[in-house]
Design goal:
This protein is α+β, with helices and mostly antiparallel strands and 156 residues long. 22% of the residues lie in helices and 46% in strands. The strands form two sheets. Strands 2-3-1-9-8 form a five-stranded antiparallel beta sheet, with no helix packed on it. A hairpin with a 5-residue loop joins strand 8 and strand 9.
Length: 156
């Protein structure tokens, strides 16, 4: 075998391997995996939370919540979790001792979201969750307050 033929064979092998690698990377980025951010929120008309670990939600989320049917003046973040969710997989996340969520990635930015309070199913919803939009589900709490989980799809 001549040196030119060996070089051409090696070059061809390298090009094929590179093309395979690049297609695998592209397939992974288009695989439908989602990165999600869940926040357990407490809505109240009291300006201060009795729990010093709670912090007021960010301005962007506060604006969305105040421009919704919610009636509370203050929104505190009780906990938050960021997690990856592969296509067609489900993840259960404990947001507090009394609150858990189960999220399934159905593909095409559609999620099935189940909310549990004190171990019981509170609500189940299936809907698209494109980046920039939020899904909010919750329930009543004591003293005319409410708790709910905000779920959004994120880039980072």
């Amino acid at each position: 075998m001549s040196m030119t033929r060996k070089f051409n064979s090696s070059l061809l092998l390298w090009l094929c391997a590179s093309a395979f690698f690049l297609s695998a990377v592209a397939a992974r980025s288009e695989s439908g995996d989602m990165k999600l951010h869940a926040q357990l929120i407490w809505g109240t008309n009291e300006p201060k939370s009795p729990d010093p670990k709670h912090k007021l939600v960010g301005k962007e989320l506060e604006k969305k919540l105040k421009n919704s049917p919610f009636k509370w003046e203050y929104y505190f973040e009780v906990s938050d979790e960021k997690f990856n969710l592969p296509l067609q997989k489900e993840k259960t996340v404990n947001m507090s001792k009394d609150c858990a969520i189960a999220v399934r990635n159905l593909g095409g930015s559609v999620v099935e979201f189940r909310l549990f309070g004190k171990g019981k199913l509170v609500n189940k919803i299936t809907q698209p969750l494109p980046k920039g939009q939020i899904l909010v589900e919750g329930g009543n709490a004591d003293n005319a307050t409410a708790w709910f989980v905000v779920l959004k799809s994120i880039d980072d």
